[in-house]
Every structure is written in structure tokens, then in C-alpha cells.
């Protein structure tokens, strides 16, 4: 790692892994990270702060994760997960430094001990979410899917910059993808399943 390149604080990177909903492979033993900025506007980086304030959804913060595989150390899984500045605040100075760094290169990669990438010490699992009687689950699913879920989706589709968009994923093509519009409905169903 090059000491002259910008190194984001590891605590901020670990928070970013949560914000972008990064989930490592089960065989991952550790991760290294690199943060970069992208934009939906061609000339955003001429004045990145002005761009971020004018249209917060146009500035995209991307976390590159390089997962080391425990089954085969020669394999490194590269994942890019992104979130808009509108949905994840980054201090102005960090935005300037990340955008000045350009695309992630080897010298920008840093190692952080984030909980999400630590090898689990135990492999115990519980099945409490499957105890719910199937009759209740069907009734609950029917209620939200057809009544509240469909009307919520129509309202969500009309929003230009939804505030509840938590994470977007960039593929290597660089295209910007919105997160699923029914995330809140799915989250509600999951929460109800966990409570019952």
C-alpha cells in the first residue's frame, strides 16, 4: 500500500460495508477494501462538492471488496457495492480525497478488520424464523403483497429520488442500478417473521 494515497478510516469503511449491504462469501477468510467515487453526470468531478450538494443522488460512493477465499487462496472475489451520497453522508474532505484518487488501483487497497469479513468462530445456526405456521405466513404474505405492497410499489415508482433507497450495485459496465422498489415490503415481511 502506498502511503501517499488516500486511506479512508477503517471505521468508516466498516460502516460503509453495512450501508451497502455487503455480504461476503461463506468461504471468505478476510477482505481488503478500496473506496471510489462515481457520478451519473459526466463533469461532476470538476467540482465534486458542488455536484454533491446540487444533486446528492448523482454522486455515488462505491466500495470495492476483495475477498480472500479460504478454500483456495489463489482465488480473490472482487465485489463492488455502491450507495448514493443522498443515502450515505461522507464528509466534504473525504469526498474530495476519494474523488481525487480516481478508480481503485492496487496502491489504494487497504486492509481493515471489519466484522463482516472475519472468519466466524462458530457455525451454530438457529431456525427460529421457520417455526411460524405456514397458514399465518400465507395469510400475512397475501395481505401485504396484494394490498399494501402493490400500492406502495406504484407510489415508489413515481418518486424520482427515493429517500429509502439504501444501496445500489455497480457492475463492471459502470451502469447505475436502483435498488429494489419493494425493499421496505420485504423488510416488513422479514421483521414480522422474526417476531412470530
Outline the fold blueprint.
Layout: H1 10-19, E1 28-39, H2 48-54, E2 59-69, E3 76-84, H3 92-100, E4 110-111, H4 134-158, H5 183-195
Antiparallel strand pairs: 1-2, 1-4, 2-3
Structural class: alpha+beta
* Rg over C-alpha atoms, rounded to the nearest angstrom: 19 Å
Overall outline: elongated
Distance between the termini: 48 Å
Range of helix content = 25-40%
State the total count of DSSP E strands.
Answer: 4
> What integer is the average pLDDT?
69
Q: Poorly predicted ranges (pLDDT <50, ≥5 residues)?
A: 122-196
Q: Which percent band covers the strand fraction?
A: 15-25%
> Going across the major beta sheet, what is the strand order?
3-2-1-4
Number of domains: 2
The string of secondary-structure elements, in order, is HEHEEHEHH
Counted by DSSP, the helix tally is 5
Q: Characterize the largest beta sheet: strand count, sense, and whether it forms a barrel.
A: 4 strands, antiparallel
Structure explained in plain terms:
- Keywords: Signal.
- The chain has 196 residues and is an alpha+beta fold.
- The protein folds into two domains: 108 residues, no CATH class; 55 residues, no CATH class.
- The chain is 33% helix and 17% strand.
- The chain is elongated and about 45 Å long.
